[in-house]
Fold these 3 entries.
Entry 1:
Amino acid sequence: MTMFDALQRLFTASEDRESAARGMKPATAAAALMVEAALADGVFAREESEQIVRLLRRGFDLDEDAARATLQTAEGLVSRAVDHHQFTRVVKDLPKEERLQVMEDLWAVVLSDEERTHEEDSLLRRLGPLLAITDRERAEARQRAEARRH
């Protein structure tokens, strides 16, 4: 493969990802970010999976089957994703209040397995600006998620 072929494949793959992101539903993009948050510590615990289903049902008004199907789709997307930008671009188009809810939901997933790691904190710290959420808003979302647990 020549350098030109390699570059052409790279740009074509990038265009395909952008096309897929344009057609992605906000629930799927949010679910993918939740899967990434769950995987940040290297373990996708059953508690995290069940929490994602609950959050999708509540936040996106999905029934049980639709929430589980959305989670399954998100898992597949995350397994093939090069980065999380294709997901954050979709969520960033949501109104601020909904983006803040997604951030709170990300924290709820991270906290659902009773372990909070540096990797999880780091991921959510990186996602904040990509979702146009300030550090303060991210911290407040974490506090709301912690309060909901108790």
Entry 2:
Amino acid sequence: MNSYPLIEWTENGEVRAVRWRSENGSPPPRRVVVADDTLTADTAYRLACEGTGLLWRGDFQNARQLLQAIARRADRPPRRKKRPEPESPVDAFNQYRQAQSQRSRTLNMLLIPIEGDFGIALRRAPDLQQACLEAYGAPDGQASVASLRELQGLIGAHEWRKKGVEIAVLGDRIHAHHGVFSPVRGEYLDLVAKAPLPAATHLAFDIGTGTGVLAALLAKRGISRVIATDQDPRALACARENIERLGYAKQVQVVEADLFPPGKAPLIVCNPPWLPARPSSPLEHAIYDPESRMLKGFIAGLGAHLEPGGEGWLVLSDIAEHIGLRSRDELLAAFAAAGLKVLDKISIRPTHPKVADVDDPLHAARALELTSIWRLARDDAGKA
């Protein structure tokens, strides 16, 4: 147990310490007090804002209601003078991320004790053992503590894993595991389903496969062999399960790799995270790519892995450009530096609900957003 972070508190005159569980790697609260059903929402909110963890010993359903009350207080407009309007889209993005981070820290202060078998020994507590098993792996018999908000995320992931997401262009469902981003935005799948395949595409690489949805779609389009890569163990297990269930196991091989597998292919597809920023949880690695590491790595290595006459499909939103996190000139310069030329760019407007949400701090950028496939090829296509 000493290899894990510990959370400590005093209860009944005794100092206690157990394993701290946090999927996003946040440290445990430095100060922890025991709380129960007698705690008022105002007091709970004040303590949470101060960074005090509230170790819950009351009714589980009451804890859920208390968390909702804390969230309402966190979302209230401040009484003090309004923060100045952001001077640029980048400022708006940074303020949005900062506010989300502060809100998350506050809501994560309500803590739930977990038994060594992933049971919750609180009144009216649900059975979370399967959800914990999917997220944490097999229980080790050691008691632990996690935030209620994290446990709610585990429950939600478990339910989504069972239900799955209907993918129209596949005619089936994709089931995302905990910590693997679900393909809830369908416009990029529509692009991949309709883009013209290079001639004689017998093999394709799907770089950063995640749930395996693009690999399955390429197989459905008739490509006889697809190699799907990822380096996240959860994504690899998720992709293999989806590919097997969808009936593409003979066509699709899921392998562990940092970007490219060995060899070359006539088609290489990559849908990297779209925003160059630091993720705050494992799930956000599908959205935020620090310093555009994956994007730059794909562009830089693409030419060496393309067969002569082959294409690389870069699936990318331009929202980073509208926010001011990356310019179009920077992207085109990266293509040129890697010896790549643009054959075509096929674009579509997203239709997810946030596009129409005028209260979204990033609404101005979302209203302009396009998702595109950049069809790339080597400038020196005749060279090995």
Entry 3:
Amino acid sequence: MQITSYLKTKTVQIAAWIGFLLAYLIASTVFSLAGDYTNDILKARHVLGIGFVLTAIALALIAWRYGQQLKKHNPRNIGRTKVTRKVIYQFLLILLFMMIFQMFWSWLISQHILVLPENQKAVASETVQMPLWNGIFAIVLAPIFEELIFRGIFMNYFFNKENRLNNILAIVISGLLFGFAHELQFDANWLMYSALGCFLSFTYMHFRDIRYSIALHFLNNLLSII
């Protein structure tokens, strides 16, 4: 009975996690579609409005579920970490390592060792079409969505026991899924995205506060676009 109950719980959690991911993807897709109607301002505004509504609903749902998760089951004591000088130094150190990694990745692309990922091409194209709104989505909204889904909800659904093995597995598996969400084929760029995901997962696990992984994700996207 215990095994059956466990499998049923995990099946429901997997389905729910996929549902949250789909809600985010649908909202972001509709939002970006407004760029296809730049020659028709009225239609672009209508599509953009629908995108805003779907984004608000999806974000509210995912944030609510994350909060409910922590109230019901929070073995890692995730919450709000007190901001101290030590915490700030640690955060900046992680940011520095992440930026060094990003520069190395950019260098590999500039040397034609790796090709520019399709995800980055799409983001760049959408930003050109609607620089303000797509910039806001890519820099501000996407980090919140992705951290709640790939770090917050995922790590509280799966590998959620407070021990070293589960913590390591949570960081690595979350990073790999993050990589696959940005690069749909198993290649070098998938590994690079996965490594970025692991940076973010480590940040969430280290500080036990999702605000830090969101902030790191925000800064990474900002610096990548500038």
